Structure formats: structure tokens, C-alpha cells
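Bug report

Summary: C-alpha cells for YggT family protein differ between web form and batch submission.
Environment: batch mode, default settings.
Steps: 1) Submit the sequence below via batch. 2) Compare with the web form result.

Sequence submitted:
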Amino acid sequence: MGSPLTQAGLLLVNAIGSIVLLIVMMRFLLQLVRADFYNPISQMIVKFTNPMLIPLRRVIPGLGGLDVASLVLAIGVQYLILALILMLATGGANLPFIEMVGWAFVGILKLLFSIYFWGMLIVVIASWVAPGSYNPALILINQLLEPLIRPIRKILPDMGGLDLSPLVVMLGIQLAEVLVLYPLKQVLGIPSGLIMGL
């Protein structure tokens, strides 16, 4: 355990960094699924990320409808968060700058799994508590999740109005974390307890 000042610094870096990283990653995902641009939350995300993305897009063009610049920005933000956390935790001695590129990729992958897992949980709870809600956040989450749920919904048998596809997706995400993330962490030598993604 470090000093209270170090702990406070780690808390601030993790909290602020996670929020920025989440917003940047949401920009990438919402553009990927062609979510409603006029949704007030979409507008907030665009306004927040434009100052960082517009200069980056001059250097990194899109690729087949994929917003590569926002993905590169997300990896860059994750890399910066990791660097700051390690500097605060170790005093900045011998940071593994090259290895941290791989760690940043794993952090983005973990964040992706987290976004979809918690999104599915929110949708499931909202379908019980507020079915048919027109809340802008719920509309955006549904637009984000629909491309993932739709193919599974087609495969599952009719359960008399009960939609089990979100639960299947949540189970799939947890399996992917076990089968993909944990082996990657071991292969890349990511220190245990290092905060990745969200």
C-alpha cells in the first residue's frame, strides 16, 4: 500500500480515465452500429470526443465504415491510464512501455466485454421495471445491443413471449472473458491487480 496521496492519485486517474475511456469507446461503438446521431446522449459523446478525434482523423482515415481514429484514440487513452497508474504505483521506475501496448489492447477488449455485459443487464432490468420506455439512454443501449442480440433471437425457439437472448449473450460474454481475456493476460504478463478497462 502506498501513501494516502498515492492512493488518492490512483483513485482520480482510474475514475477520470475510465469515464474518458468509456465515452471514447462509446463513440466508436455507436458509429459502428449506426446509432441515432440526434439522441441527446450521442450528441454529448460527439461534442466531448470531437476535439480529440478531428485532428486524429486527418492522420488516420476510416476503413470500410469503421472509425479507426476513435479506436486508436481509445487504445491511446487506455495506454495513458496504464502509464499513469504504473508511475504512481512504482514511482515511474522501469515502465514496460512496449509491453504496455499489448496491455492497452487487452484493456480495450475488457472494456468492450464490460459495456456489452452491463448493457445487457440494464436492458433486462428495464424490460421488467419500465417496459416500452422512451428514455434516451435505454434507446441508445438497445441500438448498441440489437446487432448482437438479433442473430441469437432468430436461433432460439419461441418461449411464449419470454426473450432469453440477452441472458445467452451475457453468458457468452462471461465465457469469452474466461477463454480469451485470462489467457491473454498470462501470455502478455499483465501484473495481477492492474486495473484494466472498467
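Above is the batch result. After comparison, the two runs are identical; trailing whitespace caused the diff. The mean pLDDT is 87. The helical segments are 4-32, 40-59, 68-90, 99-129, 136-155, 165-187.
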